[in-house]
Design a protein that fits this description.
The complex is a heterodimer of chains A (about 350) and B (about 240).
Chain A lengths: L2 E9 L2 E9 L3 E5 L6 H9 L6 E6 L2 E5 L4 E2 L2 H4 L1 E4 L11 H9 L11 H8 L14 H14 L4 E5 L7 H17 L4 E5 L2 H7 L2 E6 L2 E7 H5 L5 H4 L5 E11 L4 E6 L2 E6 L8 E7 L3 E4 L10 E12 L4 E8 L2 E8 H7 L6 E6 L9 E3 L1
Parallel strand pairs in A: 3-9, 3-10, 7-8, 8-9
Antiparallel strand pairs in A: 1-2, 1-4, 4-5, 5-6, 10-11, 12-13, 12-15, 13-14, 15-21, 16-20, 17-18, 17-20, 18-19
Helix pairs in contact in A: 3-5, 4-5, 5-6
Chain B lengths: L6 H34 L5 H13 L2 H12 L4 H10 L7 H25 L3 H9 L4 H12 L1 H17 L2 H7 L9 H10 L4 H34 L6
Classes of the chains: A alpha+beta (about 350), B mainly alpha (about 240).
Chain lengths: ~350, ~240
Amino acid sequence: MTLAVEMRHTLGAFCVEVAFKAPAGITVLFGRSGSGKTTVVNAVAGLLRPDMARITLDGDTLHDSAARRFLPVHKRRLGYVFQDGRLFPHLSVARNLDFGRNLAPSDAPGPDRDEVADLLGIAHLMDRAPHALSGGEKQRVAIGRALLSRPRMLLMDEPLAALDTARKAEILPYLERLRDCLNLPVLYVSHSVPEVARLATTLVVLEEGRVARAGPAEAVLSDPDMVRQIGVRAAGAVLPARVLTHHDDGLTELQTSGGRLFLPSMQVAPGSATRVRILAQDVILSKAAPFGLSALNILPVRILALREGSGPGMVVQMTCGTDRLLARITRRSAQTLVLTPGDSAFAIIKSVSIARVDIGTG
Amino acid sequence: MNAWLGPSEWQAVALSIQVSLWATALSLPFGILVAYALARWEFRGKQLLNIVVHLPLILPPVVTGYLLLLTFGRRGPIGGWLEDTFGLVLAFRWTGAALAAAIMAFPLMVRAIRLAIEAVDPKLEEAAATLGASRPRVFFTVTLPLIGPGLIAGAVLAFAKAMGEFGATITFVSNIPGQTQTIPSAIYAFLQVPGGESGALRLVVVSILLAMGALFASEWLARRTQRRTTGREGVL
């Protein structure tokens, strides 16, 4: 399943002109508010008719302005989860969930109500009215309702933006399960880097209505040229890792391609795959093997590239095993250490600096 | 009630209710359509439609009645056609009284329903479309249930207005006992003859009771719908 989007739409002085492909997995459209993310998703959904567009899903044309083909919203069979839930206030949770299922072709593949209720933890809410739900519950029901319409693809427009941190942390694991258990491509709009790092398979960075960069999430997140778009304090690479053991002192040991990592304990079975986001500002670089440090994680790396910003800082991109890491250090440190591409070095990461929200499955 | 009201008075009450129910029931679908068009669609002549719908509210009722007589009278363009094609005569019949009442009540009905439709978040209708619902389906499964209280309010207002309609009715269909004499026309007739005050007063009491009953019923229905549609207690 691949969604291919090519579109141009002018809104007053603002022009959205993008082209990208969303393969299987979660494709995140990332950008500041006003970068055109929602415009793109609404065009894919058919809620907006762009000036020019060629949007196809696996060869099936959703919109082709040149050929004057426009599939109406209700025939596109794309589940849409909105930021504000949009549950029908006059229907119970169960009837909200059934709304889309009753309209889907009977032979369309997809999970049934019990499976969805199980996956999202909403089985006990069936008889409730939407106004009696918490924000997080509403959003889970909205996701379930979209899933049950047996969509060919899921569109999500900042589904977590209206929730507080605790509710976000409650829903993120459900979204990861969705990504890993259902073979359903997702186009996901977000301006939150932790969400992107947790969920994205593919990342499309939008800036002022244009695609600034698109590619596999790990490559884009560890690209030093993307640090400005992502924000210097939020920038950081994502390392895939496998859980080895849980230690008695409350630490979990993981295996990455570049070495072992110790993290605060996580509720994941040994052997399972995880992804850990390591903020560039949490990484210390050393040219010599450090000795007598309190930091537990010392990974051997090789310097790949150095990028200077406008301030006193700079970003260093490194290879760590087969993966990439980013470090943000001062220009002064880089000069003192005489860092040059190709050099060997050591990346030092404090275990406790890695936030729980930055450890995900997948 | 039969003993208290004379036969002709009883007839006027029954006729009023008959006329008002028909007027309300038949104008409701048109009321919903026009209200939906005014609330949701952009089209040329929208302002003109708005004005035409509201005209009966502003025009002297006699003028509306006379215009009805000109168009729907037996020699009028539409009235003649209706009689030739369907054998339906409106002038000086109770059917004409229903038409006059419907036209006079229409602006009130459209206003109430339009407000209810404007209060429905179009984002909910969009959400229904993304779930696979065609436009008519969205209307019947989302919009219509959500405007329930507004529909009831509009229908009750229209019914009450129809019950009280006098000017256009008497101009269009006259004041024929048993045919076109509704409660207001009957009160008017009583007041034209010496000693008619007691009969007029009895009908005044009936009018007040009917109006209050209708309002109570609508309040109750609206609360019920509101509770069903939003789960919250609603005040009309």
